[in-house]
Structure formats: structure tokens, C-alpha cells
Amino acid sequence: MLQLLWAQPAHLNVLWMAVEVKLFQAMQSIPETGATVEDIAGKCDKDVDPVIVGRMLRHLAAMHTVRETGPNTFANTPTSSAFAEQSYQDSILYIAENFQPVHNSMKSYFEQRDWKCPDSGLDAPFQHCYNCKGSHYFEYFEQNPEMGRRFASMMDSWSKGRPRWFYKDYYPVQERLIDGAEKDVPFLVDVGGGSGHDVEGLREAFKGQIPGPLVLQDRPEIVQLAKLGPGADTMAHDFLTEQPVKGARAYYLHSIIQDWNDQVNTDILKAIVPAMKKGYSKVLVNDFVVPSQGAHWAQTCLDWELMGSLGARHRTEEEHRKMYEGAGLKMTGIWRHPYSLDSLIEMELA
Fold it and tell me: Which positions fall inside the O-methyltransferase C-terminal domain (predicted)?
């Protein structure tokens, strides 16, 4: 109980303060055997009291974030070295400074709503916390670009090292998509694909094997940030409007379904259905499929955070299936990777 209620909250707070004084960057130049608190404090960005640095380092060592190699002496770990990277620094800042207030406001949010679960991205705990009811989570970022930048950076760190859906031991792209694909017809449309992380990864993994163009779709200000290689193009598109790319081999949605309620998701999918070619086109959803029993802690905590930020949730296989059937689609398979918590759901026209 002490670790849960005292040590872990203190750990997040110490991480936050460590980012503020650039403690982790300071530690990257110390010997592998470690350095004294005074030496480390002298390398920090601010004129921080060595006593404060020592108290930070002791708790970080107790939580296995740094190593204590001697009296008043500390050294790096792979974790502390990772925390020196910008994306991990941004992750700490976003959670501690920008999202922790959402957690703190949940009690009053639920009390005002008679403890009913949110089902709208316009009136979730995030909107209650930041007094922006009627403004979507991502719209709020447009007015608060630093918060949005931190969030995007955090998502980048989340994707590092994770198995990609097009890996051979994840989803069989060759057998399910490339085989039987028509030449010079759009091969894959990445709907709401951000700056092109998945499109470019797929292009690189199957260089010279993809028979048609790849299309990246998102809001205009997002797709203009994309840097794509030959054979991949960008298109500004609102996924709640009719899909303009007709007859593609696949329409891919990565972490889109989890961000919206069932009705909005049905609208997103119904906007794709008229563009599909029966017996040929597929919809691929790369998202969490939560087991009905024994869910992993990463799935359950992210489900809670989705509720707080977007009024959304992760779904079980049956919940996914029911939603897709309502949009005129049928599930034809679910693929999983042993080292990934998300899944690849394949669908065709019903």
C-alpha cells in the first residue's frame, strides 16, 4: 500500500522535477561508475540545491530509475538514459503537468453527472477540467499548441520499439493484400494516419512489391508535415465525410476506433463503405481488442485515460464485431503479435 499510495505518486513528481532541471541530460556525461550528487547538481540546467538533487536521486534509485553505486554516488540506467530523450521528457511533462489535473477533477465530474460513464468527446473529464465543454480534445490542442506538441511527442515514444502491423510475424501482408491486388489501383489508404508513420513504414518494408499507390489522409495541417517516399501521396480529408479514394485494396485505421464512441465510429466506417469494392477491398483496424477476462494493465490504464480525455474506450472482440456489423462490415480475422498488446482486425463488406 505504501508503494502504491506514496512511492509511485512521489516517483512521478520527482520525474517531473528532474525534467525541469534537466537532471537526466546532466547524467549522460558522467562516468559509467557514477558521480557524486554535487557533481551531478553542477551539471543541471538550473542553479539547483545539491540537497534537492540528492533527494531526487535517492528516490529515483529506490524506484530503479537510476543506480546508487556508492554513498552519495549515482549512475545511469537504460531508463534514465531514455528519459534524457525529448520524447520521454515530453511524456513526463504531459502526464504530470497537463493530464494529472484531469485525474484530480474526475471526482467532481462524476458527481455532477450522477456517476454516469461519459460517451462524448465533447463532454469528458478533460473538458470538465479545462472548462472547454463542446471543444474536442484535439481541437483544444490547436488552441494550446505546446500541450499538443507534448502529446504528439508522447505518442511517438509510445510507438518506439513496438511490433508494426505489417511485420511478417504479425499480419500476412503478402498473402492477404499484395496477392490478388490490382496494379496501379490505390493499394492502401491510411485514414487519419497522422504524419505518415505507418504508410512510410509499409513502403520501406515492401519496397518494389506494392502494386499501387499509398495514400495518407488526415487534416491539412497534419499531412503537410509528412515526409513520404516515392509511391506515397498525401490527401487532406475529414474521415467523417465520404471517402474519395474508390476501390482501394485496403483502408487502414490505426488507433482511430479507440478514440470515438460507437455512433461516431459507425459514421466513420459508413463513410468508407461506399468506396469499397465488394470481394476485393478490406478495412484494417489496428487497435486494442481487450480480452473478456485477464486484461493487461497497459490495456486497462489506457482505457481509463481514453475515458478521461475522449469519453472513449477500448472494446472486447464482441463489442468490435457488433459495431462493425452496424456499419455494413463483417470481420474476417483478427491477428495478434506475441510482443504487442494491440491487434489487427480485418473486415470486408458484409
Answer: 183-329
Report percent pLDDT > 70 for the chain: 100
Q: Assign 3-class secondary structure to the chain.
A: CHHHHHHHHHHHHHHHHHHHCCHHHHHCCCCCCCEEHHHHHHHCCCCCCHHHHHHHHHHHHHCCCCEEEECCEEECCHHHHHCCCHHHHHHHHHHHHHHHHHHHHHHHHHHHCCCCCCCCCCCCHHHHHHCCCCCCHHHHHHHCHHHHHHHHHHHHHHHCCCCCCCCCCCCCHHHHHHCCCCCCCCCEEEECCCCCHHHHHHHHHCCCCCCCCEEEEECHHHHCCCCCCCCEEEEECCCCCCCCCCCCCEEEEECCHHHCCHHHHHHHHHHHHHHCCCCCCEEEEEEEEECCCCCCHHHHHHHHHHHHHHCCCCEEHHHHHHHHHCCCEEEEEEEECCCCCEEEEEEEEC
| Distance in angstroms (rounded) separating the CA atoms of residues 121 and 268 | 15
Model confidence pLDDT, tens digit, residues 39-81 = 999 999 989 999 999 999 999 999 999 999 999 999 999 999 9
- A 10 A CB-CB count for 86 gives 11
Domain 173-349 - what CATH class?
alpha beta
pTM assigned to the model: 0.86
Architecture (CATH level 2) of domain 2-82: Orthogonal Bundle (1.10)
Classify burial at 297, counting beta carbons within 10 Å of its beta carbon; exposed 0-12, middle 13-18, buried 19 or more: exposed
126 has a pLDDT exceeding 80: yes
CA distance 87 to 326: 38
Where along the chain do the CATH 3.40.50.150 domains lie?
173-349
Please report the sign of the dihedral spanned by the C-alpha atoms of residue 14, residue 17, residue 19, residue 21.
negative
Enter the C-alpha cell of residue 274.
461506399
pLDDT at 159 over 80: no
> Which residues are bridge partners to 43 per DSSP?
none
